[in-house]
Amino acid sequence: MNPVNCFSTKLKLLFLFYLLIIGNGQLSAGNNFNSFTIPKLGSNGLSLPINAPCENCEEVIEKRAGDTRSFHERKNGAQYIYLQKSLGNINYLVDGKWQPISPYLKPSQNPKIFIADEQPNKLAVQLDPLQIKIESSSLHWITFAEDLVLYLQNKKGERIPLGKPSKDNFTVGDEGVKFYNYYEGIDLEIIIKEGQAKTNFIINKKLKHLEGEWLVISNKLQLANDLNIVMANGTDYASNFDAEYIIQNSTQTTYFALAKNYAYDAGSNPTSTIPLTASVKQNIQEIFIPLQWLKSKERVFPITLDPLVTATNNLPQASITGSRYDAVCFSTGCAYNLVVPSPAGVTITDVQYSFEYEALNICRLINGGYSITYGGCRSPVAGAHGCGTNTIGTCAAINSS
Length: 401
Hints:
With 401 residues, the chain is mainly beta. It is 2% helix and 43% strand. The protein has helices at residues 236-240, 291-294; strands spanning 13-18, 27-28, 58-59, 68-75, 78-87, 91-94, 97-100, 106-107, 113-116, 122-126, 131-135, 141-153, 159-161, 170-173, 176-183, 186-193, 196-203, 214-223, 228-231, 243-248, 254-259, 261-264, 273-281, 284-290, 303-306, 308-311, 350-359, 372-374, 377-379, 393-400. The longest helix has 5 residues, at 236-240. The strands form four sheets. It has a 19-stranded antiparallel beta sheet that branches. It has a seven-stranded antiparallel beta sheet with strand order 2-30-27-1-5-4-3, with no helix packed on it.
């Protein structure tokens, strides 16, 4: 069984080595569609990076590297040092200088456009008309989610629109946009991550008048002039990104991937998750959901239809080799070693970390977990941390101890 068919291999492990005891963080399995993070100001009046380990401190800018940050704070007559070290970059180069990566959306000067431009692959979400854009660090780009509509299709290929999409009721936050009742009883989530965008249709209740063979998602794509779409079969992207299609230039350099598509409900029976057939013709992506599965009495609502587009240069370091699951998804583990230098003459009083894993396809968040070891210390003492929910999605720990 291929590891990417269960758990995402796109892991970023961020260790925060503090010389100050800070309370435990919380595991979260949701997305923020409702508010924007206000950057915190350090003691020098400059903005701190997201997930900074301290508030009344300042970053030592000259010590930044791709995977490293350093902070210091003067408190109660003592000097506190905070070191951040990650697997995968937390900073990126802009005009030869390291800048902090932030995957979060924020408002732009246009009230209809929200951007996540503090990262190598810049993203933008336009609300009306709807469009998502990812621009790679090499200035190649893709737009999608234009004319994002649902059809019913019968055996003859005849189609009937499910209705007229509505974008009147929505919320926007750090991690994306949510349109409520995009179709009656169906929400649309646009989930933004570093170099990635997901457009999830959430079917909240049993739909009426579902006649035919298929529910079809139609998604218009636009590409930079020198790019084209090809099948991913036989390429590394099929395994590393679970890709079905990749987007290349004329020299076969790959910039983006269209992931395989899945539908899943909120249940736990063997048919709760199914792969979906997709096609791309003349830059129109179509995804087919069988109505027989959708209308089955076994379905547990809500049901999620889950496409994903990602920039392919958004890979972790080569040392991250996967989740090493087996047929039961949760029995063995994969060790990732992260060396963090300790400053001389100090006592380490706390080790904190941020970690994220994503359950895909046949596995649920409850099937995954992780533990952190430092010297003779292990967290947790036995078992594993994780999000004990029987759903597909992302489990994140931020600044946990």
